[in-house]
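Worked example 2:
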Amino acid sequence: MPDSNKVLFAAAAFAARAHRHQVRKDKDTPYVSHPFRVCLIARHVFGIDDPKVLAAALLHDTIEDTATDYDDIAEEFGTEVADWVSALTKEMRLPEAEREVKYHAALAAGPWPVTVCKLADIYDNLTDSLGLSAGFRKKTVKRSKTYLAVLKPGLPPEAENAFALTEARLIEVKAAKGV
């Protein structure tokens, strides 16, 4: 195994442990399937092969949704990965309107790995919404459109393909379910 993949395999194990008691919105699927799919989308749909970026994809919800904090990520995976995960994290202690403004600013200012990870997250949430209620799908589509609008103005060249594929997925989801 190449040394460069050690970070990726360590991140998969870390994410599995951190999310071990959580389930997806369908109340049945283990939550960790989401970060795993986000990583797979980044790798196999978007063509990203940087192990650190893929590790950030695996870890993208750990600070927001578990007891994990920035220091835990930095200690295990370095400050670069921790910075990316932090930019992908909403500050849940803030009121929703303020939280979204700060989150949008972090996404817009983030380097290309943040953009690609967020696009993979959007892509997976859109795909996942196909199995849920029409109301949930509409909410997911609306949120996805907002995030795409935030990311588009400063879109780094490394994320252009991922952006186009995510926009296409949004159109597919809207057409498939009449959202």
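The longest helix spans residues 112-129. The chain has a mean pLDDT of 94.
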